[in-house]
Amino acid sequence: MKKLTKILMSALCIAAIGSSMAALGGCGSKKESITVSGSSSVTPIMEKLAAEYEKTHDVRITVNMSSSGSGISDTQNGLNDFGMSSRELKSSETGVIGTTLCMDGIALIVNKDCSVTDVSKTDVKALYESGTAIPDTTITAAIGRDASSGTRTAFDELLKIENGYATSVATLAETGNVIEAIQGSTNSIGYISYGSLKSTVKAVSLDGVSCTVENIMNNTYALQRPFVIVLKENGTLSAAAQGFYDYIMSAEAQAVITGANYISVK
Amino acid sequence: MTTLTKIKTAKFFSKENIAKAIFIALAAFSILAVFTIIGYLLYASIPAFRDIGFFKFIFGSEWSAKSETFGIWRMIVGTFFLTVCAVLLGGTLAVFTAIWLVFYCPKRLKKIYTQIVNLLAGIPSIVYGLFGYKFLMPLLVDIFHPKNAGFGLLACTLILSVMILPTITSITKNSLEAVPMHYYEGALALGCSKNQAVWKVLLPAAKSGIISAIILGIGRAIGETMAVQMIVGNGSGYPFGAFVPFTTLTSNIVQNWGYATPSEQSALIADGFVLLIFILILNLCLMAVKKDSKGGNKFFSRRLKESDQKDTLKSYRRTGSACDALWIISWVISLLVAFVLAFIVIFVFVKGFPHLSIDFMFGESGNAHTTLAPAFVSTIMLIGLALLLALPLGVGAAIFLNEYAKKGSIFVKVIRLFVDTLAGIPSIIFGLFGMVFFVIGMKMGYSLWAGSITLALIILPTIIRSTEQSLSEVPDSMREASYALGAGKLRTIFVVVLPQAITGIITSIILSIGRIVNESAALIFTVGSASTFIPQGYGDSAASFAVLVWKFMSNGLQVNEAYATASILLIFVIILNLLISLVEWLFNRRKKI
Q1: H or E element at residue A63
Q2: Which of A54, A64, A73 sits opposite B260 (nearest CB)?
């Protein structure tokens, strides 16, 4: 019996030592660290840029995905080096300044098996505002995003949806959930960042204008908004963060951005 | 100072007395923890109650950050409807399953089936969510052709009833087994068939146990967060219909917390506070029910044994009553439950295994390529620190309850009540508390510190309960023998009693690890979700496996990785379950020798 107790006790000790070693092991290589947080729409491109930057620089860039709202408030509260927002800053959001990183379209997406290829602005607006199905189509339900989403704020502003969504509209927390939900049902329409568009779902055109880089660039596609980097007003960035900030605003980074289906503004 | 007082003070500050004081303090910690949680959440939600008005907040039906109007009536109704539906379905299934398990299950299957129920309890909430989102919702759409993607009451009810089933089943099973055998024999002697005896005599006799099981199930259903928030759809309507997206108290918190204007934050904490009040009321109900059940007849306290069933049952098989139909139903339901478990596990494995590779699991993680290596480290770090904090607290409290406290004293009753309360608080409330108290209040930021301390609170009741149980099983003769040999109380506890109770402590450690591995809601709020790099210390934000599943799922580009991570989680859960059986087996064998 004693033997068994001893064995178990030593197993516990080993586990405890192991975990503390693991904790300490991480401490060995302390690189300079940069924290970026905010919009889940901006996160994919920010991760790509960070990966590129890390190839040539010895830094650790942590990209925390949440929402535009919390990206901005994190910056206000000094919880990050800079924030990401997928909409323009509001006048009520004080103490921060925004710089546009690039432009992004908001793609309306449906299931691949859905026959719909084109929808009109008024129909989409009616569907989100009052739940009326889009006439002459199989689309009866809309999927939106949560209130703190920059994509939603931009979408609502562009379509002038002012009084919230109809009760039949599901509001999901992240871009990915919208894609997954659309993949599972042929009767729903949703909206996501154009850069996050995958081949698993289908983008439909709006009033006859399809969602492409060219159409966003020449302003014919109506649903577009800027990706904004949020900095603290009158604040100074750390040397490492300044380096990364300079990089993402450089021509080199803009090439990466264009390559990922976002629209460079430089 | 005279010599006498010196001796008196020396006696007062003796090792024994100091140790006793420490054990009392450790035991009282649960009371402190519960009061701090309630108090701090109330404190943090006062601004919302004051600005909005209490009644407007409870009965208002609009939640809009834009116009700063916050009312949770919709969410209360949503939570209520969902809970009622889930408990009706899940409770029925669970009671049938428990009856089958106790009375009809072939003896060889009994252990395996108990494992199945335990495994069902061990599947992380986030995995249920993933399953519901990717399998159940599309399936429902195919069958019913609703006007949306399958969000709403029906999908939520189905998932939630499976989630609360193990809780209700295991408690119902315990109370059925505790029904005195004489009831059964008496019924048979009066000419009942086995089925009649089971359904008409034994089931009513276990009534109060079943009611407390269902109350616990309600608590679980009300507090469930991550799975529900994925499937519920978070619409702005009421759940009047099988496919209307609605919002619950918990999903509202998770979804809106990101938008952190101070006034909405306070309103969300108030939302959590209302949820906590519901849970506390349920706890009181539970206490009342338990009190009732104490009045049973003590003459007939022989518990049900395997041999009783084997010997008495055979000759009394008769058919033809309505109870026989129930017998068939219980077979069908328990087979269904086993099938559902197997299906969920296989579904996740089939989708996940093809995407598992050594590189994905242990390769170097970076922004270009996120691997699971950081999750391994951060999960181990969380388990290590949480256990380090909770074990001394929990074991100390258990020692006080079993070794020092007078049996049945009011202080002990109060401590037990608070330990039970702590055990019933849903993890989202712990998350909110950890967020406002540790992350913001104590300025820890999103960090493994904040997460580990929060987790320590979550696992504390498990450790206290399990340790206390095994301490109470140590025979008094051992303590007496130790005293007779001249050992002090402290020495007796640490040298004689604790080594005997090691099974319970080890089991509680394994259970706690399971709880930590499963946890997602509380961690998202306290540790954040940074998953790219191996954390460099306890000050960093990090993501455990469960949080990683949520993250992979949310960014929309890595569903395969979500499945792969979920299958690793399931493997963990299965291993932990097997470990518990192994520990029990080892120690049972030892006892026989």
Answers
A1: strand A59-66
A2: A73
